[in-house]
Amino acid sequence: MDLPKIVARKDAIVRRFRSGHEHKVDSREHLHLYRGHARFLGPHQVAVGEHILESQRIFINTGTRPEIPRIQGLENGQIALSLEASDRSQTLAGSHLLVATGRRPNTDDMGLDKAGLETDKRGFVKVNSRLETNVPGIWALGNVKGGPAFTHISYDDYQIVYGNLVEGKSLTIENRILGAAILATEGGELIQALSSFILTGAPYTILKGAIYIHPTLAEGFFSQMDE
Ligand SMILES: Cc1cc2nc3c(=O)[nH]c(=O)nc-3n(C[C@H](O)[C@H](O)[C@H](O)COP(=O)(O)OP(=O)(O)OC[C@H]3O[C@@H](n4cnc5c(N)ncnc54)[C@H](O)[C@@H]3O)c2cc1C
User: Is 0.70 topped by the overall pTM?
Assistant: First the structure.
């Protein structure tokens, strides 16, 4: 496995996706992008490098990063792992060590205390179902607030906040009804039909009358509805 090559490919894909959004930001006269590590100075004040920005509305969307556990010797490069159970101890040696111990929120160096923001015991920003924090005028979206850690959830968080603040809607994360799960080839494509359908609030039996293009996976899937 050539990890540097994999990471370089990932970086190139991320850059390509991101540049499209950056062009959109750059083309907006009244939208300014400040690059850097943001820290709260107060409930409505944030510092990014030498810039101090103030706003009545602030949206925290800083995500998570890998959790590296504090295991003695993890940093010293040698790969040998000691395991201890009540009745025995064992040492394992290997060429590589995969540390897969979850992710932690990017909140520990953001001055949340200066804004009076509450987090849970793991550091995730606490929000209500409208994604409002305990401080009026501050919202938290995406992975940084905990819960399901998916891109589509982060995007839906944005839709909730935008809908409520700009479009006068009254959306909550409870509107996100998870009523189906599919584990199958192209399951991501199939579930899309169901997740859109759930928004209508109609009974699933209506789908029986639909015409499913042949030959498709959707056709096969919906033909199983009576089972
Ligand atoms: C290997 C891997 C594979 C995944 N595959 C999938 C998948 O197939 N499908 C799926 O739905 N999800 C997948 N996910 C999860 C998905 O990537 C996340 O759910 C999503 O990126 C979260 O978006 P976000 O906007 O909350 O945060 P992020 O995308 O993490 O963005 C947060 C941004 O904030 C920046 N930031 C952090 N702190 C500060 C600060 N103080 N000041 C300024 N900026 C800051 C970070 O640098 C980052 O750019 C995967 C994740 C990983 C790690």
Answer: yes
Q: Tens digit of pLDDT for each residue in 48-84?
A: 999 999 999 999 999 999 998 888 877 777 788 888 8
- Report whether 122 contacts 20 (CB < 8 A): no
Ligand 1 in contact with 154 (CB < 6 A)?
yes
Q: Is residue 106 within 6 Å of ligand 1 at its C-beta? A: yes
What are 147's two structure tokens? 């819960």
What's the distance, CA 123 to chain centroid? Answer: 15
The token duo for 36 is 């850097």
- With a pLDDT cut of 90, the percent of the chain lying above it is 57
Could you give phi then psi for residue 140, rounded to 5 degrees?
A: -130, 130
Nearest CA to ligand 1 atom 46: 62
Helix (H) or strand (E) holding 40: strand 38-42
Residue with CA closest to ligand 1 atom 25: 142
Cα–Cα distance, 107 to 119 (Å, whole number): 9
